[in-house]
Amino acid sequence: MSGATILDGKALSKQLLDQLAGRVEACKARGATPCLAVVLVGDDPASKIYVRSKERRAAKVGIATADHRLPATTTTDELLARIDELNRDDAVHGILVQLPLPAGVDEQRVLRSVDPRKDVDGFHPDNLGLLMLGTPRFVACTPQGCMRLIEHAGVDPSGKRALVVGRSNIVGKPVAQLLLHANATVTIAHSRTQDLEAEVRRADIIVAAVGRPELIRGEWIRAGACVIDVGMNRVDAGGPKPKLLGDVEYEAAAARAGSITPVPGGVGPMTIACLLANVVSAAEQA
Ligand code: NDP
């Protein structure tokens, strides 16, 4: 079966969180407890689970959270007013607006309204621009988590062929920038890519961020490649609960890859740890 090193995101995120605890203590000692404001609009069940999980992890490392739950009927202007308050509040170091926002709320306007120095998700155009220039302030959490996993795999991207599948603003594009800054030769594939299989076959590093269960077949993976699977697809497998599948056909890919992230337990836990690392950095810089 698998010859690949399994990249355990749970264990790696725990290491990162343990390191954060010391930095949190140092902030507290100078009277600035790192604080993340979490804004959740509406009743999306998956968003509620994500928010709870972020708040629980934050509490474990001593980061304070301030919950801002708003009804699904909230207008863009009402949400902008709440963010303005949080921007002005010196006790708040990071602001997270849980996506997706209800239909009718202008997501781009909302994300642009967050003070870039409190934008711990790294979605503000200032922060995306700084990343592009190679002088990042806050790097989006999932892309940052992917890079930490690649590093943990002992893979230096320099000179390697990296393939990013997916070009979203929150995962695909920023992770491609990070790989470029790490001197990889980067290809970005998307829904119009003509021959995805051929692109995958020549890649030394593959970051899959598509949202299509097992789109990337195991037999396409180049022997020894590093595979980072961001995809989280809930699929009905006939059991009482849906099964969580990645964008990569895991078992078959693990038989060929040099290293691979499982789903769940790979990228997901790293995303939260990187978010909290950004909150601590924001508190240190405040
Ligand atoms: P988006 O839906 O925003 O983007 C998906 C991308 O995949 C698009 O660029 C799209 O191309 C591309 N795509 C769609 N179909 C194909 C195809 N057949 N071949 C190649 N490319 C294709 O998704 P996100 O980036 O937000 O998320 C991607 C996945 O990662 C999801 O499963 C999501 O749940 C998961 N995720 C996991 C996180 C974690 O912490 N583990 C965090 C964030 C996301 P085009 O642009 O042409 O439409």
UniProtKB/TrEMBL annotation:
Recorded catalytic activity of this chain's protein: (6R)-5,10-methylene-5,6,7,8-tetrahydrofolate + NADP(+) = (6R)-5,10-methenyltetrahydrofolate + NADPH; (6R)-5,10-methenyltetrahydrofolate + H2O = (6R)-10-formyltetrahydrofolate + H(+)
Record-annotated Tetrahydrofolate dehydrogenase/cyclohydrolase catalytic domain positions: 7-121
Single biological process term from Gene Ontology: purine nucleotide biosynthetic process
GO CC terms of this entry: cytosol
Pathway field: One-carbon metabolism; tetrahydrofolate interconversion
Domain Tetrahydrofolate dehydrogenase/cyclohydrolase NAD(P)-binding: 140-285
UniProtKB keywords: Amino-acid biosynthesis, Histidine biosynthesis, Hydrolase, Membrane, Methionine biosynthesis, Multifunctional enzyme, NADP, One-carbon metabolism, Oxidoreductase, Purine biosynthesis, Transmembrane, Transmembrane helix
Entry's Gene Ontology molecular function annotations: methenyltetrahydrofolate cyclohydrolase activity; methylenetetrahydrofolate dehydrogenase (NADP+) activity
Enzyme Commission number: 1.5.1.5, 3.5.4.9
Binding site for NADP(+): G166, R167, S168
Record's subunit section: Homodimer.
Function in brief: Catalyzes the oxidation of 5,10-methylenetetrahydrofolate to 5,10-methenyltetrahydrofolate and then the hydrolysis of 5,10-methenyltetrahydrofolate to 10-formyltetrahydrofolate.
Similarity field: Belongs to the tetrahydrofolate dehydrogenase/cyclohydrolase family.
Protein name per the record: Bifunctional protein FolD
Gene giving rise to this polypeptide: folD
Full-protein positions shown: 84 to 369 of 369
